[in-house]
């Protein structure tokens, strides 16, 4: 028989004969502690084998004569074991609680490969993954980042870290022999949390021995407190802090997992541990006076019945003033927490960093390309997770888990903080935020898990600009979930260059329906995505009036889907298909269905390799359209004859404007600046050589038209436009 006795430090065993009597009969009724002691004495079931796990500080509680062998379990001593763990863990579908069956095995293999490379070159993360529980945290975080596709997401990042702490410290008391019986997590929040908070405030991640002493030892007053600190250093310290492996900082300590610093700092603040000396003294004094006033009040109430002295009621009320005043003053703590959250969430110096989800991804998988050495600290440390964790800790689920860990956050305190946040967080969010910072704010609202608060915050967002934010499935789920708390229409949603694909559009479908202006440029959206866009535009609740799909590989098949959408849509007034590889056939398909549309006002088919026939057909249809008055056809393969034919068609019917060239007969087109601005904005994404050829043709056309006019005012206008085109050509030739 093998007995495994796990966490034996929780039992205060007494090996003295006077304390625990001998017992060799398994059928004899004795207390549980006596059974364990006699098993270890080998007096009860001597042939049985026993494995005991204990914390290092409690090892000596079992006399050495009863122990045959000591072993310290350290972790993964070989990086190959780490890699094997990651390979097995990440290959298990849905192991983080998500249904990730749909994710490809190739994506998992890629994750394992990137993680392995980062382990080989990044000593600090390899040191963290020495502990198997941190390997669990890394894998669960990766599953959250890559395989979350439900709306709303079934997890939060704060929830992952809170569950991780429950996994390791649930039910753990720092020292079972200490009368305070303080939970291990509460002690960590008070001590390590203080260190973490000071690091966040001073923008530092490396801590010296002096820093540790200031946070751990400066307030130690009693023998009991020093004993608790000794147990903490022996059992828990190395779990949260490890020696820095960065060159030149060998004698300093860093948090084993960087994000844990921000989590513990957030927990330290939300628990109300961040108090000034006056607040601490005031609370103690308030408690003392409050207790004394209760006793004195009872005596005075009895005396006042016997001796009718007028001053006694006055004295009675005076005794209650201080506790009441302090309770009112302590209510200011919630305002301070909300203010700290808002201040950290909207720090202007962090405005142009990557969003926090990309930062976490980079910290785990590394950054591809010729970057600085991974163990080299950046010039400015970024702590943007800190306020997000503060919001996440206040969610009901996380507060329930923290309650189990001995870190109690009352419902009333959470309510007061949320109330104070309305005056700070929501007001600050109304200012224009850069895209990455806006994504952080949306993620904060998701982590907070307060639907009423989120709805109030989202109603104030009429324009959502997330351009150039890499919209992973998780970020799309967060955006859809947060925006889904209200039903208000969004004036503009900018998702330009966001790495969107067909699945992203499916996740965001309910949000896209409510957007009047929708920017989807530069997203590699092909025919399959156009099928989703068709369903969007044909939906009876669609309010999209301005749709921009420029610089996407729509192609002929995609044009077919969009043409069907145009035929049945009732809201769209502006459609941009600039540089979408339509070709003549794609343009013809759109022209065929255009007659069925009664609302479109502007159509952009520029830079789509259209020839004279297709361009003329589009303008012919536009002439008969009830509302369409502007068609963009510049940068297409239109000949001089085609240009003249288009010009004559345009002249036949007032109101139809075909933007083809920078000239209009012997004058400059009214839209020359608009056309050049479009070219200027899209130069980084277009074929440079082809653009150069088009600009050369435009320049020839301008010079030819200038020679044909005798009007000096028109000549001056031509010269001005020519100079702009020459500048652009010069930049292209110099590779600018």
TrEMBL record:
**Signal peptide range:** none
Give TM segment ranges.
none
One of the record's GO molecular function terms:
ATP binding
Per its UniProt record, what InterPro entries does this chain match? Leu-rich_rpt (IPR001611), LRR_dom_sf (IPR032675), NACHT_NTPase (IPR007111), NLR (IPR051261), NLRX1_C (IPR048900)
Tell me yes or no: is Repeat among this UniProt entry's keywords.
Answer: yes
Q: Where is the NLR family member X1 C-terminal domain?
A: 668-729
NACHT domain ranges (all copies): 1-86
Keyword Nucleotide-binding appears in the UniProt entry:
yes
Q: Which UniProt keywords apply?
A: ATP-binding, Leucine-rich repeat, Nucleotide-binding, Repeat
Q: Name one Pfam family in it.
A: NACHT
UniProt name for this protein: NLR family member X1
Question: What organism does the record attribute this protein to?
Answer: Cariama cristata
